[in-house]
């Protein structure tokens, strides 16, 4: 079968499975198997795809057809221009989360210590360390599966040992004080999870999504407890859901934070809340 025919078949298989972006996904999966790029479909559509490649391709199509997110099937996702390994133990890094990284980078100075709570794939902390000088970081997560992925990503993307990981329920096992605390905690209200698309609710880790009854469980705990772990003048950055700006700013204000800011994402929705510790 030719490259073009394989692609056409892939497209059909995914469309029949009800995948919206069947064309894009069929192409990306085929490129992954054959080590090709976008141009190959146009320029080399008549090249032969080996039987082995065919089988491997069909296998990935089948997995994608089960509504497993494309990124888990490929095993990688780009974030901040870096390629992160992902699997079902970690939330897939979202483009919106780049806003948090960009905001934190604005005020990040050489040699600072950063604490990342609910680190998942490690995408936030690893990016902050990659794009700064001489900073160090501690990434915390409750999930051992997630920490294993984060460790692999750090090994691949950071050149020296600037980073440590710790299995801990938020601050429980954390020692020391930090210049910055960053977190993209689970923030979806429990009863909303059922309404999410199958890729998310059936395949992404529930533990990384569920923010309790009102979605604010982790923001409450972190703002209440962070006083012991954040240096005076240090800054806290949260990613938030589109409708949580007011509630989360309120929590920061109640805890004694100042210079509280709500930053929007490229879709014009509230996405990040930050504040300076002044208590
Ligand atoms: N910090 C990780 C991310 O932003 C994981 C977040 C989470 O598990 N809620 O992708």
Brief summary:
With 279 residues, this protein is an alpha/beta fold. The chain has helices at 3-16, 22-34, 38-43, 51-65, 70-74, 97-106, 123-130, 144-157, 198-203, 217-225, 245-255, and strands at 76-79, 82-85, 113-117, 136-141, 163-167, 178-183, 230-239, 257-264, 270-277. The protein is elongated, with a radius of gyration of 21 Å.
What keyword list fits this structure?
279 residues; alpha/beta; seven-stranded mixed sheet; two-stranded antiparallel ribbon
Report on the architecture of this protein.
By secondary structure, the chain is α/β, with parallel strands linked by helices. It has helices at about 5-15, 20-35, 40-45, 50-65, 70-75, 95-105, 125-130, 145-155, 200-205, 215-225, 245-255; strands spanning about 75-80, 80-85, 115, 135-140, 165, 180-185, 230-240, 255-265, 270-275. The strands form 2 sheets. It has a 7-stranded mixed beta sheet with strand order 5-4-3-6-7-9-8, with helices on both faces. A two-stranded antiparallel sheet has the order 1-2. Strand 4 (about 135-140), helix 8 and strand 5 (about 165) form a beta-alpha-beta unit. Helix 1 packs parallel to helix 4 and helix 10 (about 215-225) runs parallel beside helix 11. The radius of gyration is 21 Å and the shape is elongated. The model has no long low-confidence stretch (mean pLDDT about 95). Glutamine (GLN) binds next to helix 7.
